[in-house]
Amino acid sequence: MQNNLKISFIGGGNMAAALIGGLAGKLTAAGNIHVVDINADSLAKLQQQFGIKTSSEIDATLAASDVVVLAVKPQQMKGVVAQLVPHIKGQLVLSIAAGIRAVDLSRWLKGHNAIVRTMPNTPALIGKGITGMVATEGVSKEQRAAADAIMRAVGETVWLDDEKLIDPVTAVSGSGPAYVFYFIEAMQQAAQEMGLTAEQGNALAISTFVGAAQLAAQASDPVAVLRERVTSKGGTTYAALSSMEASGVKQSIINAMKAAAARGQALGEEFGQD
Ligand SMILES: NC(=O)C1=CN([C@@H]2O[C@H](COP(=O)(O)OP(=O)(O)OC[C@H]3O[C@@H](n4cnc5c(N)ncnc54)[C@H](O)[C@@H]3O)[C@@H](O)[C@H]2O)C=CC1
Ligand SMILES: O=C(O)[C@@H]1CCC=N1
């Protein structure tokens, strides 16, 4: 399904590249995608990989875009957005930045109110992302549909009614892939400490994650029931889970995720000021 949606990315880093990979030549022609980045190497890579248009400075392409995706770090957002003001008229502005609130983007854009704030994640790279998103009042039906189509090009979407929930979404799915990788790293290390090779440990840990996650996605039972089915009384899993409980692993994960959400809020407060 291709349409003629013209999309400009401000920032062509990791997340932008993941999104462009799902969009270019799929949702819209590669020639309809434009990336502005100050890093010439990133631009050259994107240009080569996807055949999109690139430039090191904001130019007239921006004014002709339907959607402007803000994909720089929260710390850079205010300075970058200030440069966009003369070029933003009716476009949809779609931010993927952690923390930065729509109200601050709108103020920096001199009252522009067609903003969709999103939180994607890196499995977008393989079309398996999930994005939490919320729209401001000035977003039209068509713009909302365009935002949804852009994020669906790299996975699933979950729309929120309340922007405050974006920080919890960031804590669950935005940062979430890193927790999974951390858990896999721990399993790989344990495998090696117990005598398996790195290659064996790698295969066993990753396949276990993929298989268990797919089972959880497909099963009609809650994950707690799936866990109980692995856990024989007096058996090996019971020994492992008892050790985790004794070390407070579950509470530690909960605390960590609350820290991520709090950091999202703090980023908004710190980098969303005038
Ligand atoms: N990496 C992740 O897992 C996720 C990141 N995000 C958000 O995505 C945004 C981008 O993150 P990443 O892609 O990971 O960062 P990144 O550092 O890979 O990309 C940022 C890009 O912005 C460019 N840039 C910096 N100043 C600029 C300017 N003045 N004009 C144009 N381009 C400029 C940099 O050269 C860089 O290529 C962040 O706001 C982050 O919160 C959201 C969800 C997940
Ligand atoms: O760590 C971060 O701040 C970004 C947002 C979610 C994932 N990476």
Topology:
Layout: E1 7-10, H1 14-23, E2 33-36, H2 40-50, E3 53-55, E4 67-70, H3 74-84, E5 92-95, H4 102-108, E6 115-119, E7 129-135, H5 141-152, E8 155-159, H6 166-174, H7 176-193, H8 198-218, H9 223-230, H10 236-247, H11 249-271
Parallel strand pairs: 1-2, 1-4, 2-3, 4-5, 5-6, 7-8
Antiparallel strand pairs: 6-7
Describe this structure in words.
The chain is of the alpha/beta class. The chain folds into two domains: 7-166, NAD(P)-binding Rossmann-like Domain (Rossmann fold), CATH 3.40.50.720; 176-265, ProC C-terminal domain-like (ProC C-terminal domain-like fold, Orthogonal Bundle), CATH 1.10.3730. It has eleven helices and eight strands. It has helices at residues 14-23, 40-50, 74-84, 102-108, 141-152, 166-174, 176-193, 198-218, 223-230, 236-247, 249-271, and strands spanning 7-10, 33-36, 53-55, 67-70, 92-95, 115-119, 129-135, 155-159. Strands 3-2-1-4-5-6-7-8 form an eight-stranded mixed beta sheet, with helices on both faces. Helix 6 (166-174) packs across helix 11 (249-271). 1,4-dihydronicotinamide adenine dinucleotide binds at residues 10-16, 36-39, 42, 71-74, 76, 80, 96-98, 119-122, 174. GO terms for molecular function: pyrroline-5-carboxylate reductase activity. Belongs to the pyrroline-5-carboxylate reductase family. Residues 6-99 form the Pyrroline-5-carboxylate reductase catalytic N-terminal domain. Keywords: Amino-acid biosynthesis, Cytoplasm, NADP, Oxidoreductase, Proline biosynthesis. InterPro entries: 6-PGluconate_DH-like_C_sf (IPR008927), NAD(P)-bd_dom_sf (IPR036291), P5C_Rdtase_cat_N (IPR028939), P5CR-like_CS (IPR053790), P5CR_dimer (IPR029036), Pyrroline-COOH_reductase (IPR000304).
